[in-house]
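Quick check before the chapter quiz. The format below is the same one you will see on the exam, so make sure you can read both the input and the output lines.
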Amino acid sequence: MGLDLYVGPLTRYYLGDWETVVQRFGKESGMPVTIVRPASNQENKEPKLGPGEILDLVTKWRSALSEGLGENLQQPLDWPESANGEYFTDKPAWDGYGNLALLAAYDEHPGLLPPVVACSDFSSDPAWQASTHDDFRSRYTTILLPELWLPCRFAFTFRAADVTGSEVWIGSSITLLEQLTSLNANAVKASLEQLTQWRRENFEPGDTFEKASRFGLAMFIELAEKSVLHGLPMKMDY
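Here is the expected output.
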């Protein structure tokens, strides 16, 4: 099961009117590509509703979420929603995201030795488990936990039902970008030119942890910047 990142209106996402980078490449090269998602997610992520109905669902969900968070927010949740708004997407894959998460976890636990080879099961890693433990106050919670980031300012993460009713971790893409910037400054100190270079250097299974984590960092920074700049949600798709 692969992992893509989507930045754009949630209405367009749930309508299914967007393409992953693999789909786009397939179209441009004349090679048909079919994205197969788990059957349990298929009904939720591709509801047979029209654009207006999905837009109504998203805006009602956003209003209910905003009301539920209440005084925890400086201002109500808001961002542009439409069925045909601009979107951005790319594919960090689970290795890109997982090793980025480990880069953050090992920065918080310098007494632990990070892996040499890219890790394919980050959730069993001792540093990740330590950083996500209930008793630990992580500096990188918005990197480590959410799969949905809203383009609104708040410093906390929380679990709530998404538009389909599935329980997910949610955070702020503004805070995400701040934490990614802090992680870069603390752990790798990359310039904009270096991040651009790492972003272009894909990785393969068996590559180093350093290469995979830096690729993930560069991609997440780029898409988090687009989320903040355009005021659009950022979501994992798998």
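If your answer matched, good. The two ends are 6 Å apart (CA to CA).
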